[in-house]
Amino acid sequence: MTNIPEWLETEEHYEAAPDRDGFMTKSMLSIISMLSSFRAGKVSFGKHGAAFPAPLKLLLCLALIITTSATKNMMVVYAILAVTLVHICLLKAENLRKTVGVAFLASVMSALILIPAIFLGSPRSMLTVSIKVFVSVSLISILSSTTEWNKLTAGLKAFHIPHIFIFTLDITLKYIVILGDIALDMLNALKLRSVGINKSKSSSLSGILGVTFLKSRHMANEMYDAMICRAYGEEEKK
Question: Is residue 119 domain-resident?
Fold first, then answer.
């Protein structure tokens, strides 16, 4: 009969030293929020969201942004701002908070950049530019939160934009989601396998970025080979 070694019978009381994994948690949350913005699809604000097709939304958004940027009459800007705020109020709470937060941050950054205008005798320039930036960013955020990405890219056909540009944009958006899933899986694996104190968190993050880059390059080569096998672009040459 074989005797069990003493080291197998000895009880071990190992307690991993506590470590801060804030960088991994924040990275995962940022990736998840980015992916959710691409996957959320259309968020309808009342009965008006589905009433407008994507090309019309793109045209209205572009026209309002150009009008806001080019006009010197602040009453027009205030009217567009009022309409924009009404649309923001009709969004869901999550999209409302995101839209207002991004637009407010952009307007504050523009105001900080234009602080020297106060000392140069043009204090109203800072206020005017900040309001216009808030309106423009809000319009773009409303458009992105109320319209699916694939419908936005498909809506570009109505403006006779080259198909190669639309195809590249659509593939880019899809691969952002795929590569985000890969990076999120690696972050989860790193978090599950991290025991004790990890003093090289920056190297772990750079490793994840490196693997994601190599994976994106490999996937790009595979897509290129698949397009060549399917004679993509031969019709244009003829």
Answer: yes
Domain span at residue 56?
47-159
Same domain for 64 and 109: yes
Domain count, the chain: 2
Which of 125, 142, 33 lies closest to 84 in space, CA to CA? Answer: 142
Question: What percentage of the chain has pLDDT greater than the value 90?
Answer: 9
> How far is the CA of 43 from the CAs of 86, 97, 149, in angstroms?
16, 14, 12
With contact defined as beta carbons under 8 Å apart, do 224 and 232 qualify?
Answer: no
pTM of the model: 0.63
**For the segment 148-161, what is each residue's pLDDT rounded down to a tens digit?**
777 777 777 777 88
How crowded is the C-beta side of 61, counted as CA atoms within 13 Å? 22
Residues 178 and 115 in one domain: no
Give Dmax (Cα) for the chain: 97
